[in-house]
Amino acid sequence: MIYHCRAITPAMTKSQLLFFSGIALLLTSCGASRWSEAQKASLGSIAVPPVPVAGDGYDKPIGSPEIAAPYISAPVGSGFAGGAIAAGVGQLAVEIAAVAEQKSFEGRYADAISKAPGTVPGDLSGRVRKAVAGTVGSLPHFHGKVRDDSPNRLVVTVEKFRYVRVGNDGGEMLMVPSLSGKFDLTGAGGTKLLSRNFNASATSVRRTIDGFVRDRGAASRAFDEAAAEVARQIGEAVGEKLGETPGAPAVTTPAGRTAKPGKPYQLSDVSGLTATCSNPYPLTQSCNIWSGAARRIEVGGQKLKIAGSADGKIILIRDAGLVPKNAVSSKGSAQYDAVKAALEASGVWVLKQRDMVSAGKTVGFFLETSGDAYGAITKGS
Q1: Of 31, 63, 81, 317, which alpha carbon lies 20 to 30 A from 281's?
Q2: Which PROSITE patterns does the record associate with it (predicted)?
Q3: With a cut of 50, which residues of the chain have pLDDT below it?
């Protein structure tokens, strides 16, 4: 069976959003079944041809985090941070505010916006291709088997690229490059084995739009990060079908614990107005529609709330208070440090992390981990 998994993007129409909102309740992952041993055996090597980048693919920067939210599985205003808004002011008010914020952004940074296309690297195609080939080549099945002459082809296409807002710093709007498109993996006979869309943003290199215009080196590094995120998404999708994970396999210590990996990978932020108990992760333990994280805990002196996936490997952490006094961020906060230390004491390591933002403020964070983080944190509480 071939799975066509479409990324949900800001460019979709309302009817498309409603359609995907419906199926999001039915699917927790897309294309989760693995390839058969015969299919894997037929993929003795793989080629990553030059990546087409649409000539008309550049779009104007997006200055509203609600418009720029990379994942949408519910109408705007019905997410964790938007529950109260949806009940009171309503979705229309949120949409009006987002449009007004976008217009304000375009007026404030008009000169930089006009110059932003010049910050896009001319070799974007090559950067994406190199990143994808490297990540796919790190899968055990394809290690040393990425070859240009392979009959099996992983065709990646970048259809849209732009800057999107991810936060604020001293009243300035911080942006990152975002790339969207699709990839198709076909076998030797032209049989399509995997087809998906992607929507990927830079992770750590953030500037105002005029900051990127002034500092082309930063723009270059940010586009490299976006290309790496494209590669990560593709590598995980292919790895899922192979039953493998990109990169070196986990090493188990004699005591049975997983050895500590490197620095956690920082994923792009999630908007609190669009996050739900099924988006961007299926959270089935201690999750509610109002705040997401519902179970109260205390970790390292920090009073928090937690929600988790069925296996406990993914958790959402928020402050226990209704209005957090400080940013609850995976990029550096007392709450994050306390949770990470408690997990590591239990032999559970943070692999990936991402912040949840609302109205320009960081209000919580998601952690993807190596083990049952939810159980480790809630044990005895």
Answers
A1: 63
A2: PROKAR_LIPOPROTEIN
A3: 1-31, 69-78, 83-91, 248-256
* Cα(82)–Cα(86) distance, integer angstroms: 6
Residue 222: CB partners within 8 Å, gap ≥ 6?
A: 176, 177, 202, 205, 206, 207, 212
CATH numbers and ranges of domains, the chain: 30-57+109-242 (3.40.50.10610), 265-378 (no CATH)
Q: Is 282 helix (H, G, I), strand (E, B) or coil?
A: coil
Q: What pLDDT, in 10s, does the model give residues 318-336?
A: 988 766 666 788 888 899 9
Whole-number Å distance between alpha carbons of 212 and 149: 38
What local confidence, expressed as pLDDT, does residue 102 receive?
82
Tens of pLDDT, residue by residue over 129-172, are: 999 999 999 999 999 999 999 999 999 999 999 998 877 777 78
Q: How far is CA 114 from CA 59, 107, 108, 160, 163, in A?
A: 11, 11, 12, 17, 12
